[in-house]
Amino acid sequence: MDKVASAIADPVRRDILMMLRGTALTAGEIARHFPISRPAISRHLRVLRESGLVHDELTGTRRLYRLDPAALAELAEWIAVLRAPVGWGHRLDALETEVRRTRRERAQPGATRHRDRTEDTA
Question: Measured over all CA atoms, what is the biggest interatomic distance in the chain, rounded to whole angstroms?
Fold first, then answer.
């Protein structure tokens, strides 16, 4: 997960990943979209390859780069945990307690009536 997080920390690499969504491109095709040198693009592609976010395949004389979103799964799960509200377990336990109390009161009609009378006199 650390390699993936480091790889996507750079805005150029994030742009490359967006470019590779749904398509395969050569390093030259990718480089045309950036005002940096081809060797710099190659270094970015190497980082993406080493993190598992991009795979390359040799097709004839061309090397095509493809996105592998599976490498994002662990990071996405970690982010989902961070985004989940804290304390849901506690809230669900409290809800369960309230449901049981309500069922108990409905099963004992006299207890509910007694309670209503005390509230009326108060």
Answer: 91
The amino acid occupying position 7 is A
Q: Identify the three-state secondary structure at position 1.
A: coil
pTM: 0.66
Tens-digit pLDDT profile for residues 50-72: 999 999 999 889 999 999 999 99
Residue pLDDT, tens place only, 64-122: 999 999 999 989 988 888 877 776 666 777 788 889 888 888 887 665 554 554 454 54
Q: How far apart are CA 73 and CA 112, in angstroms?
A: 52
Please give the torsion angle defined by the CA atoms of residues 38, 39, 42 and 47, in that order, rounded to the nearest 10 degrees: -140
HSE (side-chain half, CA atoms, 13 Å) at 44: 22
* 76 vs 84: CA distance, rounded Å: 12
Report CA dihedral (25, 21, 42, 10) to the nearest 10 degrees: 160
Residue linked to tokens 């395969």 = 24
